Amino acid sequence: MKLVTLVNVSYLPGLFALLESLIENGRIKPGSPFFIVYLEPGVLEYRSQIEVFEFKFHFINVQDLGFVAAPLKPSGRDNFEIALQKLLIFRIQDKGPLCFIDADMLCLNSIREAGQMDHFSVAPNPRRKGFNSGFMVFRPSISLFNEITKYIQESNRLFRHGDQGVLNNFLEERYPDTIKLIDVLWNVDKKSYLENKADFPDNQIKLFHYISHKPWWSSPTWYWVDWRRLRLKKKARVNWWWWQYYWRAQVFIHTRLFLKKLVPAGFFAGARRLAQKARDVLKTEGPTAALKKTGGYLAFSCAEAWNGGYRGLLDGAIASPTEKSHAHLRRLIEGQRVLIIGSGPSANELERIPDDVKVFTCNRGVQIFRRLRLDRRLDLYMSTASKMKRLEGLEGDLARVGTKILVVDDFRYVRKHHSLGGVFSDLVYDNGKHDFYIKKLIHPHSLSSIRGSSHHAWTSTGIRLLQYALYFGASEIYLTGIDFGKNGYFWGKNEDKWLHDSIDENFVRIVAARRPHVYSLTRSNSLASILPHKTWAGQTA
Question: What is the 3-state secondary structure (H, E, C) of 473-486?
Fold first, then answer.
């Protein structure tokens, strides 16, 4: 059997859990070919971790296969073009058949029979007409790919579900006899399972599909509980399935990589056996027993799995924005004038804000409303749970002002604090560390090329708000209180070292060269030497 999947950096957690589940449950012959079509070069940074699993991997840059364009793009589908690139798997140079599996799926039972399936075998979609393209058995064909892309251009229609919509319409219209529908248990999506669990027995599901919200977009708050006694609601339980596979994958990866450094090549079979033992004990008896039965090696590898697998990968990759958060932000920003208020001393020069201007701020920036007695509601406020806990009076100021969109890194914190219950209209997750927006805005520059001497590889929160305004199409953007950590805050001395100086300034310089509609509202801040100055009355020299 030959497998293939499509992955970008934000889907790497899903890939690791998928690989682990295939090894545990798929009954696939070790050394089977596995094609990884990657959308971003950053995926290759995790190549050594991916290759720990018992497949023969072939990494294919999606740019080597081409690009699929669409004349029409559905509103609210910011990942639409990425979804269409799945069609490039038909250009893979292999006779096939190939078994495509989405990186947000889990294998729960044997899929060995897939190797005997015909071209084009797919599972029906329980919730709508047609099939779900998360699992497909197909034969690559450049001529078929060319025919599909020509169909997209000539039909000039909205394919709202990306590659799935294209394939359903194309095959139904042109080659209906090609579609070979198999049992729905080969592709059980999360929503269908939660609505009709009785129709999908757990011990018969082949592949489980985490459509929409991904498990790795939320922290596993219950992981270290003894899961043999765990009683979870249905939605939490299906996410719990995923987290068990992901964590076992990380322990297996880091145990083997750590032992590979220590154990001579001739004895590496013993290292593999120890890693397998760690995985098996973790699966059946839990983490405490696994630590006891495998000794200090696993203790170290668990720490590595936490730092490299959870904190490093999850903080950076899994926190990518969702379609729902994009929809909230686009409705608020597109075509509007936006004012971004930072916490620098130049914010004190702010006197009035026109009614048609959307106001964004972060952290203690909300206090400027009380200082200047501004009588209006915020449009967007962003902070982290740790800062909201640490900065005295911050929650009270936010509760008095209110905001349309609250952007935080911890929904649990917001839900626990009843004083924040009526503060916002929409809640959006962002930990400020993922690079989705900045990479789009600085291309072809790389993030490493603009980091400079900054302590962090991500921008400050104020500059993150600028990324929102740029990405979602504000007509004009005004900034005040953005002083790159110089001369303190608008309320007094800056006691903390600024950790984003180079990356913030370099990003703003790129913006200034490319976007003429971004202005500094005041002359006294650090932006005045980079951006043109413009007041509400008009631009000044």
Answer: CCCEEEEECCCCCC
- In contact, 431 and 312? CB cutoff 8 Å: no
Query: What is the amino acid identity at position 368?
Result: I
Half-sphere exposure of 266 (CA within 13 A, CB side): 0
Mode of pairing for the β-strands spanning 337-341 and 424-429: unpaired
Q: Which residues pair with 209 in a beta bridge?
A: 105, 189
Q: How far apart are CA 236 and CA 215, in angstroms?
A: 9
Spatial distance between the Cα atoms of 14 and 320, rounded to a whole number of angstroms: 13
Q: List CB contacts of 356: < 8 A, sequence separation 6 or more.
A: 336, 337
As a whole number of angstroms, the distance between CA 347 and CA 365 comes to 8
pTM: 0.59
pLDDT tens-place string over residues 284-333: 666 556 555 655 445 444 544 444 444 444 444 444 566 678 888 999 99
Note the helical H segments in 133-189: 142-155, 162-174
What is the four-CA torsion angle of 379, 382, 385, 391, rounded to 10 degrees? -90
Beta-carbon count within 10 A of 194 CB: 14
Q: How far is CA 174 from the centre of its chain?
A: 35
pLDDT tens per residue across span 89-123: 999 999 879 999 999 999 999 999 999 999 999 99
How many other C-beta atoms lie within 10 A of the C-beta of residue 41?
Answer: 11
Single-letter amino acid code for the residue at 271? A
Q: From start to end of 54-182, where are the E strands?
A: 55-61, 98-101, 105-107, 121-124, 131-138, 180-181
Question: By the 8 A CB rule, do 98 and 3 touch?
Answer: yes
Token readout for 279 is 């995985």
Q: What is the 3-state secondary structure (H, E, C) of 206-261?
A: CEEECCCCCHHHCCCCCCCCCCCCCCCCHHHHHHHHHHHHHHHHHHHHHHHHHHHH
Report the DSSP beta bridge partners of residue 381. Answer: 361, 406
Q: Taking the alpha carbons of 75, 447, 47, 272 in that order, is the dihedral positive or negative? A: negative
Contact of 409 with 218, CB cutoff 8 Å? no
**Integer Cα distance of 147 and 149 in angstroms:** 6
| Interatomic CA distance for residues 184 and 181, integer angstroms | 8
